[in-house]
Amino acid sequence: MEYTKFAYKRKIFKDREEAGIELAEKLSKYKGKESILILALPRGGVPVAFEVAKSLGAHLDVFITKKLRFPEQPELAVGALAENGEVFLNKELKDYCPEEYLEEEISYQREEIKRRQVVYRGGKELPSVSGKTIILIDDGIATGATMIATIRALKASDVKELIVAVPVAPSEVIKEFSKLADELVVLYTPYPFFAVGAHYSDFSQVSDEEVREYLEKAKIIYEQHYKMDSEERNKSSKESQSLVHIPADSVRLDGELHIPQGAKGIVIFVHGSGSSRFSPRNILVAQVLRSATFGTLLFDLLTREEDMDYENRFDIPLLARRLIAVTKWVRTQEQTKALQIGYFAASTGAAAALIAAVEQGKDIKAIVSRGGRPDLAMEVLGSVNVPTLFIVGGNDNVVLKLNRDAMMRMRTKIELKVVQGATHLFEEPGALEEVARLAVEWFTKYLCK
Description:
Layout: E1 2-5, H1 16-26, E2 36-40, H2 45-56, E3 59-62, E4 65-70, E5 73-82, E6 87-89, H3 91-94, H4 99-121, E7 133-137, H5 145-155, E8 161-168, H6 174-180, E9 183-188, H7 208-225, H8 230-236, E10 239-248, E11 251-260, E12 266-270, H9 280-291, E13 295-299, H10 304-307, H11 316-332, E14 341-346, H12 348-359, E15 364-370, E16 388-393, H13 397-407, E17 414-419, H14 431-446
Parallel strand pairs: 1-9, 2-3, 2-7, 7-8, 8-9, 12-13, 12-14, 14-15, 15-16, 16-17
Antiparallel strand pairs: 4-5, 5-6, 10-11, 11-13
């Protein structure tokens, strides 16, 4: 087993991205090699792994392993559960846990793994790892319980070679990992070791949405700048897809245009505050719409620099003006100019969509709003003449009331669908799938006329 350790001294990374860039340099011998798959432990390992995948030109995915929490001390791991069912238990701690507690904790984490599979991969299973060289990445190792469970699960899946790579780890866990992985790359093993977060200036929590965004960005980078395998090419041959740059005001907005063969119409996605074209929720809905033969356009309403100014995210006239410019662009493109146009909007994007629809008259055929803020377009609600569907989570009480109040002011065909048990981000199992199903029904009814 090969072990590469680069320093004992204490290192403070600016953030996980910086750690990933430095780790990628130490893994450069794998660049361009066949059958490489980068697997990250979510959520903290994903920004690190993204930089490695980008540098090596490799596929990026996540391997979901959940910590099994010690009773009344949730930060302490009594073990871990991997997404393929592999369980690792700490021999020294498990005897202090009642058997009934462990059964309940494993059951709870199994459901959480299923939820994350939906959020991160749209419910798809992990790609086959058999015969592949796996580079397994996290933002650091502390006790190692989660990583050990993951290594054992992957080893049981007939991988060709398993490389474990992390920016920082305590030297005392190295011996055990040396027995498990084919190669171990650790940038820093400081002594004494306090915690992984102590080695980052910015160790803020990574959200589920950010994980999905990193995965989508990695996929786009790989497909645009590196080769797609034959199966991916065959799958995409039935669909026109491209990165686009749309002029609006004095800037260019980046977008992703997908037009399935025989498209019934095109749905333009209008994301909400703090989001982008990489919104995992919008991406999932777009995938379902394309499977129903609708074209989709996901684009950034703001440039990266503009988004840094928080006030721009709530500048509804600006967002509406951008959406109108993008809609006009869609009408001029050869592959989209004959398609009927609909809007799928979320949060503040709903207000922008309503205003844009009013200003463009009957050119917009249907609107679907997910957890939208129509109250931010109150002055135009009475003028909306586009069939509009509001979808709101049953537990999103404030937004639910705002949508009901907005409906009272609207004269067009308007419906409200409440997804019971769902909160504002529709992170609950099955919630987003229900949103997608309702959207397909609405666009099929009103966009295909």
